[in-house]
Amino acid sequence: AYLKLAANPADEVAAKRVLNVPKRGVGDTSVAKLDAFAAAEGLAFVDALRRTEEAGVSGRATTGIRTFLELIDDLAAGMDDGPATVLEMALERSGYFDEVRADSDHLAEGRLENLHELIGVAGEFDDVDDFLERVGLVADT
Fold it and tell me: How many whole angstroms separate alpha carbon 60 and alpha carbon 117?
């Protein structure tokens, strides 16, 4: 979902899927405020994220959203570096790799292996959109 959002900043579903993954202090109340603000102002959800104070979101959620937007902007800027680079950056900078590594669940090692395998597959593609299309087709079958 991070790559989908970097490729298409208007993808509200992708934005909401990763906004608080790993946890950034952005809860349902903040998302509801942002949804209402976006609807009232005729904005895309991601554009509302850039105006948190106006939407009535404050505190820890604002800090988390700011960090999230910096990551998404950096991922979007790196799209020409290819999907493997962007995916690895997303997993590292989001803290997702750290979260999986810290998980004491016996399945965590397998999840890490799967993520590294996904990065390897992404490395077979030059273009993020082509990679996302292929992953989408595989996921749909």
Answer: 34
> Could you report the per-residue pLDDT of 65-124, keeping only the tens digit for each?
999 999 999 999 999 999 999 999 999 999 888 888 888 788 888 889 999 999 999 999
Scanning the chain, the segments in alpha helix (DSSP H) are 2-7, 12-18, 28-41, 45-49, 52-55, 60-77, 83-94, 96-102, 108-122, 128-140
76: three-class secondary structure by DSSP: helix
**Which amino acid appears at position 49 of this protein?**
L
Residue 50: name the closest of 41, 87, 27 by CA. 41
Domains in the chain, ordered, with CATH? 2-140 (1.10.486.10)
